[in-house]
Amino acid sequence: MAVERGTTTLRFMVIANPRAGRGRGSKIIPVVREFLASWGLPFDIRVTEGPGEATRYAHEAALSGYDVVVAAGGDGTVNEVANGIMGKGTILGVIPCGTGNDFALSLGISKDPVRACRTLVAGCVARLDIGRVLDRYFVSSVGVGFDGTVAKEANRSIPVLRGAAVYVLALLKVLLTYAAPRMRIRLDHKSISLDAQLVAITNAPTYGGGMRIAPEAIMDDGMFEVCIMERMGSLETLYHLPKVFKGTHVRLPKVKMYRAKEIWIESDRTVPLHMDGEVTEASALHFEIRNQALPVIIGRRDRLARQAPYAAPTAGDDALGRQGISVGLASFGKVEGR
Length: 338
Fold this sequence. Notes:
Elements (H helix, E strand, L loop, with lengths): L11 E5 L3 H19 L4 E5 L5 H11 L4 E6 L1 H11 L5 E6 L5 H5 L6 H10 L1 E10 L2 E3 L2 E5 H9 L9 H12 L6 E6 L2 E13 L21 E7 L3 H13 L8 E6 L1 E14 L2 E21 L40
Parallel strand pairs: 1-2, 1-3, 3-4
Antiparallel strand pairs: 5-6, 5-13, 7-9, 7-12, 8-9, 8-12, 9-10, 10-11, 12-13
């Protein structure tokens, strides 16, 4: 294990969303508190009560000198925390307890809260890419059109369902009424015009609770993976749905995969879109990627282009800016647990 029990000058702020995962978030808070205290780590916990609070709390924590801000929630909570700490040099940690948890899944972070906490102290820190659209950052993916409509439906789905089951049920409902909009898409210097069933712009290989929408995605290579699906009928879409879970949909004639650093999309009407699972609407979008701009504690590096080891710095140490630093987190020192 990379971290020994003892002292540390690194400070942790945990931002917990108790409503994540249909209320699962509230159950993991005492688990996280007990784990961090047992390791003698200096930490505080703030619990959100509504949208936008995680971003505000994360921003305040970064300005107050916390070294690691941990998002305890789903992909939406991770999104808010990332937006709060961007540009501050603060490290992002994740304890997944949401519906999809695709960001954590892509980085080898367990849904078990104790194992996720162990990653905080035994993992390594890597600089990941982060996307930007509509004046906000996103860590995993944006789905425009069909999957945005599915995400909108999933957000009001049956409470007892979790993970991919939520998205599959929502998809079946949307299939009955969805009409593909006309879209004009520019990928760097390539232009496309089509009736698009869906357009997914992603930095991570999965979304929608494990659907392998972009199986070749690398999370620190400075490029978006773009999945564009031409208009399909309801039965055709339903027939091919299982392929998305395996990543074999990329072989379909009506599916094209691209890579780009900058993307423009114009639609003939306002369409729903999801940004890390959170839904909004737009008719014109401009995407940019920030290469290796977000330091994150991860559990594995197989989704990274840079295979050299990374490590977290001790306070006051600019280790993130150096090359060739040792594997794992820096050793922690002894303080009173809170």
